[in-house]
Amino acid sequence: MHPTTTIRTELEGFLRRKGLNFSQLGREAGLNPGTVSSIINGNRVMAVDQLDRMTAVLGLPQGYYYEQYIQESMVDTVPDWRRIKPFLYRCAELDKLDCIRQIVMLLLDNLIYSPLLFEVAEDFFNEGRSEAAILLYESVATSERRQHSERLAFCHYRLFTLRLGENQEDNLLAALQFEPFVDRLDEIDQLDALRDLANTFRSMRRWDKVDKIAKDMGTKAKIQLINAQQDRRREEPTKKTKRPLFVYLALSNLFRGAVSDARGDHNEALEFNYTYADLSWVKEEDEETRYWVKMLEAWAQANIWVCKLFYGDSSVIKDYVAYIEQNRNETLTGLLNILTAANQFDYEVDDIIKKFENEILSYIQLSQPASVGVYSKEVITERADRLLFELAKYNLKKGLYVLGFSYLTNALHKSILLNNDSFILDCVRLFEKYREFSSIETQTEYWNLLKEEE
């Protein structure tokens, strides 16, 4: 559209070319003649639904006039939220992110729009319109940056979860940017935020961070459990967490056990595992409580087996394999633990690798990870990469060089995609240790991967 024209002049031109009157245009657009007359005579600003109807009659693509509509109905006149809100939803439906960005810039300095934009952002978030939601959360966070409000903190929480992806450096940055805002959240939301942060740092093996956050989550969970008991006595309704409160206390011990395992303190890890294995103090008997009690008790038993594995006790492998066979969501984590222990204590696990060869192949081919059970896609991606590395080490130690290097180049490739520098370095060290046993073709593939990393 020529910059000197308006939507109204476009419609006038269409009427002249087609020889239509207001009634005929209204009939084609599904609008009454009075509405059409008011729009074309400049007595009424169109709603977005009316604009879409007119655009369709003119035979133009959906959203064709949106940029001009912003200028005419929001820049040249006083913005009206009754027009802006439905227009934002329509822009999100059509993926017109630039239009959303323009609207946000118009409203940015007026705090009155912050709660309204936040509500729309929440709708976008719940509908899975992530990019549109990010634009609105960012605008609200910028607008309220000096307010120290709970809404500001919650915007940063949403932005943190929406920005998580396969790139570990980006995930680390997102986590570090959000971490200072956790204490500004509602006390209930803090528990879910701490759980999400702990899982993110755990996927990056930042054990110092995991330990600090897990301790904090455990302390806050205990306080909320006491508060919940008092609320029940007063029969007052309270805001609820996504999971029962006792789960957060148990997860605190689970996370701290994982930290102890990673640091090689398996005695301490066992203590944490035994602590959350005992949930006899949980008195509720509803279906959700029973589900989580059963789940946590199973995890505790599995992690007790893992601790014994890393003590050098191979007698628990049979029980642990049976567990991961019955709990398919635990297959990846289980295989990773078994292979890591096998490399440390020279366990023979060829039969286990054979049993799960289809699952292992799926981890090699994994390109679009999804959450599995309680494991986020970031955790799944990181653990799949580590499993390939441990498989490479296992086979190279056994002299199965072709298979070992195949696993290793796959692990290196995934580490580069994840931008996981520490794991790239681990892959390089392992390759160099066995370089003399690699073929010319394998060395060429290896160098090509390293060039990609540069």
TrEMBL record:
Extract the InterPro entries matched here.
Cro/C1-type_HTH (IPR001387), Lambda_DNA-bd_dom_sf (IPR010982)
Give a GO molecular function annotation for the protein.
DNA binding
User: What superkingdom heads the lineage?
Assistant: Bacteria
All copies of domain HTH cro/C1-type, residue ranges: 17-65
Q: What is this protein called?
A: Transcriptional regulator
- Native species of this protein? Paenibacillus donghaensis
